[in-house]
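A.,

Following up on our hallway conversation. Structure tokens first:
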């Protein structure tokens, strides 16, 4: 495992560690699988969290702890897509827009969660290098994963909101590699948003009696 914790290359003055690079690449694969509504989304997400936990453990305690939460949500997503939720005609999870109560609940949870986590990070500076934006990104990621597990189109909107902070924050703090990863995330999110949006409209379209299937 020593070589995994070693430097892979240097980009824009940033030292890229193998574990960090592999974890971020797995994260991109996870998003692509989510677009396809593949059940493999969740095992790959769990593996990404496990790899990034290894990358952060021992020197970035807060970041390592966040990956534990991500892995737990990945297990919930696996259970939800494997055993719960409606199915589309292709047998995969059906997608839909959230109801207004669900939207309000997610917004309230995101707001309260961001404040709570930011205050925790502020009280314990070792947990985060930038408490409020870091808390926003972390909580936003969890909300996005929850919406994805429930098959909600809003999953993609949540990811876009995370990217709006994540991209400039990483570039501003000299994390060019992570910034570029977030840019690719943004492109995948727009692609996935279009697909899920169209699927939700087709799923909600009434079928006339006697019309061909």
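Then the amino acids I'd put at each of the 213 positions:
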């Amino acid at each position: 495992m020593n070589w995994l914790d070693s430097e892979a290359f240097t980009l824009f003055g940033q030292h890229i560690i193998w574990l960090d690079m592999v974890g971020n690449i797995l994260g991109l694969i996870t998003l692509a699988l989510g677009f396809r509504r593949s059940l493999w989304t969740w095992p790959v997400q769990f593996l990404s969290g496990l790899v990034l936990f290894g990358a952060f453990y021992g020197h970035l305690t807060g970041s390592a702890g966040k990956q534990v939460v991500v892995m737990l949500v990945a297990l919930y997503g696996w259970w939800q897509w494997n055993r719960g939720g409606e199915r589309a005609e292709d047998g995969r999870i059906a997608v839909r827009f959230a109801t207004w109560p669900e939207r309000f609940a997610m917004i309230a949870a995101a707001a309260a969660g961001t404040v709570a986590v930011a205050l925790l990070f502020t009280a314990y500076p070792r947990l985060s290098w930038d408490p409020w934006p870091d808390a926003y990104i972390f909580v936003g990621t969890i909300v996005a994963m929850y919406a994805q597990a429930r098959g909600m189109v809003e999953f993609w909107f949540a990811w876009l909101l995370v990217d709006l902070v994540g991209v400039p924050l990483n570039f501003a703090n000299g994390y060019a590699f992570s910034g570029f990863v977030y840019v690719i995330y943004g492109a995948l999110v727009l692609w996935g948003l279009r697909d899920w949006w169209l699927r939700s409209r087709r799923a909600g379209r009434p079928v006339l009696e006697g019309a061909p299937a």
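Confidence is low (pLDDT under 50) at residues 205-213. Curious whether your intuition agrees with the design.

B.
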